Every structure is written in structure tokens, then in C-alpha cells.
Amino acid sequence: MSAPVVSGSERETRAIAAALAATLAPGAVLLLSGDLGAGKTAFVRGLAEGLGIDPGEVTSPTFTLVHQYDGGRLPLLHVDLYRLETADLDELGLDADVTGKGVLAVEWPDRLARVPAGAVSVRIEDRGADARAIGVWHGDTGK
Ligand SMILES: Nc1ncnc2c1ncn2[C@@H]1O[C@H](COP(=O)(O)OP(=O)(O)OP(=O)(O)O)[C@@H](O)[C@H]1O
Ligand SMILES: [Mg+2]
């Protein structure tokens, strides 16, 4: 992992995510880990901004599991697996045919039985007040 970047505000986290989004190609999978309230959904709002999607559309998909936001450079698929013990992307309707066209962002990826090859991990850690350390690396969460 490259050295984590420290974000000092939700806005800064969104800017970091937007910059990452600009580099993503169809089929990108982002595994967003971090405690409750760390800023995973805020990061997804930044991904939306970076793809040209209205970030106001992004809400926590805890109850619906999967949200799709269209209208940007690439479709953004957003999944929150918090409530599941184990999850299979294919069973959620997120097989490679679907995810291959857009960007998939997964909150609580430790629930995944199998992590797609080529995934990028983003770890957000609360450093007190509004500070968050954000680390990005290629590969799965290393659980
Ligand atoms: N630097 C920061 N980056 C991101 N969010 C921040 C930051 N500082 C404060 N916050 C606040 O932390 C909260 C992050 O909430 P968010 O819903 O994004 O967390 P989450 O990781 O998705 O939580 P959950 O696991 O419950 O889904 C928001 O209230 C946000 O305003
Ligand atoms: Mg969330």
C-alpha cells in the first residue's frame, strides 16, 4: 500500500475519491473497508462526483443492498453488505456481465465469499474528529 493520505473533512475525502474515479476503467471494483461512520458512503459520493453523477443521488444502500447510479461517464454500482454474514456478488445480480460495464463500490467487503480479481482496496480509518486516514492498494482487503 502506498502511504495513507490523511483527509481533514468529508469534502476532502470526496475530492480524493473523485480523483481516483477519474482513473477508473469499466469493470473497476473498489472494496471500501473501515468502521461504521468511517466515511465509506462519503467516499462513494466522491466517486459519483468524479464520474459526473449527482452525489446527492448516493444514499446508503443498507436496506436495498445494491444501488445503481447512471448518467455519468460510467455507471456506478454501490453495495453495502453490512447486514449479510456472507455475500456472493453473482447472487446479488452483480455478475461480471453487469460489473464489467461500470464501477462497483462495495462497503463491508469482508462479507464477500470471493473477491473479484483485479479489485482495488480502500481503507478508511478514523483518526479523531474529522481526520481520516485513507489507504489505497491493489488487491483484496487481506482478511
Ligand atoms: N474526513 C472525513 N471523511 C469522510 N467523512 C467524514 C470526515 N470527517 C467527518 N466525516 C463524517 O463522517 C461520517 C461518515 O459517514 P458515512 O455514512 O460516509 O460512513 P460509512 O463508513 O459509510 O458508515 P457505515 O458503515 O455506517 O455505512 C459523515 O457524517 C461525515 O460527514
Ligand atoms: Mg455507508
Explained architecture:
The protein is of the alpha/beta class and 143 residues long. It has a single domain, classed as Rossmann fold, CATH 3.40.50.300. It contains 3 helices and 7 strands; from the N terminus they run E-H-E-H-E-E-H-E-E-E. It has a 7-stranded mixed beta sheet. A hairpin with a 5-residue loop joins strand 6 (120-126) and strand 7 (132-138). It starts with a strand and ends in a 5-residue tail after the last strand. Adenosine-5'-triphosphate binds next to helix 1 and helix 2.
Show the helix and strand layout:
Blueprint: E1 5-7, H1 10-21, E2 28-33, H2 40-51, E3 66-69, E4 76-80, H3 96-99, E5 103-107, E6 120-126, E7 132-138
Parallel strand pairs: 2-5, 2-6, 4-5
Antiparallel strand pairs: 1-7, 3-4, 6-7
Helix pairs in contact: 1-2
The structure holds adenosine-5'-triphosphate (ATP) and magnesium ion.
Adenosine-5'-triphosphate binds at residues 7, 9-10, 12-13, 34, 36-42, 60, 80, 82, 107, 130, 132.
Provide key terms for this protein:
7 strands; binds adenosine-5'-triphosphate; 20% helix; Rossmann fold; 143 residues; binds magnesium ion; globular; alpha/beta; seven-stranded mixed sheet
Q: In total, how many domains does the architecture comprise?
A: 1
The CATH superfamily name is P-loop containing nucleotide triphosphate hydrolases
Q: How would a crystallographer describe the biggest sheet?
A: 7 strands, mixed
Poorly predicted runs: none
Number of alpha- plus pi-helical segments: 3
Which percent bin holds the helix content? Answer: 10-25%
Amount of beta strand = 25-35%
Mean pLDDT: 93
Give the N-to-C terminal Cα separation: 15 Å
Q: Specify the overall morphology.
A: globular
Global structural class: alpha/beta
Order of helices and strands: EHEHEEHEEE
**CATH class descriptor:** Alpha Beta
CATH topological fold name: Rossmann fold
Cα Rg: 14 Å
The assigned CATH architecture is: 3-Layer(aba) Sandwich
Strand order of the biggest β-sheet? 1-7-6-2-5-4-3
